[in-house]
Amino acid sequence: MSGNHSVPSALLPGVDGAAFGVALAVRLRQRGVPVGFTAIENFIRALEVSPPDSLPRLYWTARITLVRQRSEIDVFDAVFAAVFGGVALALDPHARRRPRITASGRDDAFASLPANSTDRRHGDALPWVTLPPVVADAEASDSPLAVPDRLPNDISGLAEVPFEHLDAREMELLGTWLRSAVVDWPTRRSRRLAANPRGHRIAVRATVQRSRRTGWEPLHLVRERAIDKPRRVVMLCDVSQSMQAQAPAYFHLMRALALAADAEVFAFATSLTRLTTVLTHKSAAVAIEQATDKVTDRFGGTRIATNLRALLSSHHGGALRGAIVIIGSDGWDSDSPEALASAMARLRRRAHRVIWMNPRASAPDFEPRVASMAAALPYCDRLLPADTFRSLQRVIAEISRARRLHSVT
Fold it and tell me: Which of 195-199, 274-278, 289-293, 399-403 bottoms out in mean pLDDT, i.e. has the lowest?
């Protein structure tokens, strides 16, 4: 995307098309819409091929090229209305069927998010020309262009906020951002083989079949190698009274893993509840509500060892073999430490890696002084803090790290 990309139209006179397309895509990404480089290139090329001479043409050009899913239309309308002054309802005849966009150009899903200084000073206008990364105040000038301060976007600011300070809308927004973080998934080597020129084994049947063309002389050897398949992930979430503030956020992580990686997810307090089917609902709000209703023993006591034994003995126990197991709990357990150590030993022999998320581990002076936590720690590969969405993203990064720790199980 090099060269001159100015849009020769009456609607955007003298505007750098590349800078305009990138700036609009950045706004959409800040609101949780995953706009890729291909979509940005398509939008810029569309502006060059058919310069928009009216606002409706610009709206539909951007929407067709930048929006991929129906669930992203509301966010796109909100961003477009914020830039061009609340015009999405007039341009899209179906927009009135969706939640109303407020006068400020931000829909209800973003009403609780703080606007940055650029929005307050310039009315959500896009930087339509390429600007230098200047953060200091510019000197007085007659130029109509202004250089905004570079500030973190809304999602980055909320990612470090503790779970107990987030409302339902902010948590749903960050859950969408968390789902987009699941990009690099670990794999495991299967027993199935496929032809590959870099393989170390010779496919005898394929080589013999190919030798029919050369008088049964095997002049060309067909090589094969094992096929890699995604590694299974199983997550268990503690929903007892001591984990009341973290349970909704852990549900969003479980939903992200179930949707993006086909993971098996469970919740436990005094009994074990499978949530894989309900958390894969297309609506995040409905999925979290159904998961909360299904866990009947939430915010009660905790029996970690009993629930681990129940999972190992159930027909879902086979999913643990060679899997990455994630346990989200603070370690408070009504069962004895010896029972938890025995259950964790069985789990460790069956799983590929065991990751324990503890919301208390982010404290500077944290030590696993709880007897149950101390008993389970020798059987864990990693103990990670999990009190903010940023820390949950580090958990996903730790899962992806297993790709480099590839081994045959």
Answer: 399-403
Give the rounded distance of the alpha carbon of 131 from its chain centre: 30
Helix (H), strand (E) at residue 191: strand 187-195
Q: Where are the alpha helices (DSSP H) in 330-370?
A: 337-350
What are the Cα distances from residue 142, in Å, to 42, 117, 145, 146, 282?
35, 22, 9, 10, 51
**Burial class (CB within 10 angstroms; exposed 0-12, middle 13-18, buried 19+) of 198:** exposed
SS3 content of the chain, % helix, strand, coil (to 5): 45, 15, 40
pLDDT score of 378: 93
8-state DSSP, 348: H
Considering only residues 93 and 212, tell me which one the structure prediction assigns the higher pLDDT: 212
Cα 252 from Cα 179, distance rounded (Å): 8
Are 273 and 237 in contact by the 8 Å Cβ rule? The answer is no
Last residue of a domain, one of 85, 102, 130: 130
What angle separates helix 73-84 from helix 17-30, to the nearest 10 degrees? 130
- Digit-coded pLDDT (tens) for 173-188: 777 777 777 766 677 7
Number of domains in the chain: 3
Biggest CA–CA distance in the chain, Å, is 85
Residues 392 and 287 in one domain: yes
CA distance 16 to 68: 24
Please give the single-letter amino acid code of residue 60. Answer: W
How far is 211 from 204, CA to CA, in rounded Å? 10
Does the residue 309 lie in any domain?
A: yes
Q: Integer distance in angstroms from the first to the last C-alpha of the chain? A: 45
Is 165 contained in some domain?
no
Could you say which of 91, 107, 130 is where a domain stops? 130
CATH number at residue 368: 3.40.50.410
| Residue 289 domain flag | yes
β-sheet with 201-202: strand ranges across: 187-195, 223-230, 201-202
Residues 269, 299: contact at Cβ < 8 Å? yes
What letters, b where the CB count within 10 A reaches 16 and e where it falls short, cover 215-245? eeeeeeebbbbbeeeebbbbbbbbbbebbee
The strand pair at 233-238 and 223-230 is best described as: unpaired
Residue 108 backbone zone (phi > 0: left; psi -120 to 50: alpha; other: beta): alpha
The two beta strands, 264-268 and 272-274, are: antiparallel
